[in-house]
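Re: FE2/S2 (inorganic) cluster structure - here you go.
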Amino acid sequence: MHTIYLDNNATTRVDPKVFEAIKPYFTELYGNPSSMHRFGGQVGGKIREARDQVAHFLGCDAREIIFTSCGSESDNTAIRSALEAFPEKKHIITTAVEHPAILSLCTHLEKKKGYEVTYLSTDEHGRLDLEEYKQAFRPDTAIVSVMWANNETGNIYPIEKMAHIARENGVIFHTDAVQAVGKVDINLSAIPVDMLSLSGHKLHAPKGVGALYVRKGLAFHPFLIGGHQERGRRAGTENTTGIVALGKACELAQTNMEAENTTVKALRDRLETGILQAIPHTRVNGDPENRLPNTTNISFGYVEGEAILLMMDQVGICASSGSACTSGSLEPSHVLMAMNVPFTFAHGSIRFSLSRFTTQEDIDFVLQTMPSLIENLRTLSPFSEEKEAPAITKRFAK
Amino acid sequence: MWEYTDAVKDHFFNPRNAGVIEDADGVGEVGSLACGDALTLYIKVQDGIITDAKFKTFGCASAIASSSALTELIIGKTVEEAEKLTNKDIANYLGGLPREKMHCSVMGQEALEQAIKNMRGEAGPKAEHSHEGNLVCECFGIFDEEILRAIKENDLQTVEDVTNFTKAGGGCGKCVDEIARLLRQARGETSCPAPCKAPAFPAEGMTNIQRMHLIESVMDQDIRPILQADGGNIQLIDIEKKQVTVKFTGMCSSCPSSKATLENLVEAKLREKVDPDIKVILED
Ligand code: FES
């Protein structure tokens, strides 16, 4: 069965060009970049090149890039570094719709370390309110962390404005840009972002590599302490293949950015409008204006997400859902809950995320199969337009 | 991805007896859209034997499979036999369910009970709770009777178990203390685990300052930890005689159930530990 992969916000296919570029570093050029011999040294040269590629892509200096193992490590490093730099400051500002890498860390800091966290709320489209944001600053605010783009809805947040506001308040600004990199124009020389996290595997590099940008001059405290790698800012022998891959992936992303915003976006729009037209009781969750070009989060009323996903899986379509059942929790995704998506729709949300490897045929196939698939589940459902509990966004009516 | 048995997949992809019986003798409705799953069961009974059963289910694969299995299990049985059916029978029929999904089998059992009651003219199709029962979990509308029964019938040991089987505790988490108490109660332990604090209402005869300190400390020890577990917090704004003004911050400020939290947690705790007449209001 042909696999139609529409789950690129979960992870992406390694670009064959990236794969070619890293092959020699497994069995031939396997030296340790820290070694004194030339055999290892040449690997060091390649890492420098990769660092340049990443820096060039982000519009920053190569010395501002620290290679890490993943987006979560970058996020953890950034926040913990800022907190360590200002031990007397006990307040963090973030949003209610962050990735768990940030949210779980923040709740941990609240519960175990005595921090207070402000979670900025969103409107029904998942947009933030800049007034609320401005009001959230306190004299003891240590750091602001706001994602550049949301993994579930694709919403793009006004990072430039928000970074300026943080700067005016003298507070460090971090952004988790894991989903935005490669899809949104990022030029760190032009905006006052202090730290930025990214991850390789969302960008057609392999899993297990990420990077953290740290603005020059910013006080930094390493998370992993040990060897002198990454100029003492992140210990551990370099993940050479991962780093080379990330460099190459950034280089490719630069050239592919346009395609992401034209071809991929056109396919996404076709998928989205196609589904909305063909299937009644559907809605898009997210910001109609500022959204990643590859993502659409569509809710199917009166049916449940896990059941939809399994039906899709049966015909080879991969996507994901914000429904409760898929994650093993009992509540729908925190992102949809923060947006007050009514339960009728929150339980039946499906996220389709495309990439430059998605084809026209893929989308056609999805458009052909989805209507009957949803219809089948709806005939099983006790709910329908006629027999629906009113659109409930809030528990509980007892 | 869940590890579903072949039987679960089979009953999900090829559900048996899906549909409606227009002239059903009994109908049972449980669950809701808000809760993420719901089941309506229709039964037809002749001479005390269930001759037909059909279902409509909103929910995940295991909810649909459990409903399908339920109908297969009861068709051809006498009502008395069907009444003995438990959620375990449904799960076993499917070769087992992931533990986190056991509540789907419980939903089947409840729908069947309701349908039988409805057939006998004892109740409407939708389950109503008796007035003696206490609502334990507001997020999912689960009463103590249901929790106690699940504990007994499935020999549940932990709060997590209770959540897997009944959903109670799977939302805001506010009710987990009460679930833990019910677990102890079911095991026959006394319901007062901590040494009960001596004076009933210590605030009597206190000065204003003393009372303020007491309120602060109850906030710190009994209220904040629970809110913080959900990413929220509370700020004390003002105390005027018996009226305490507070403000929720963090997750709580946007939490849909914040009003219930105010009454059931904040006010209840302060009434219990400070003064039975305290009134707590939200700053606006
Ligand atoms: S009241 Fe039980 S989980 Fe919220």
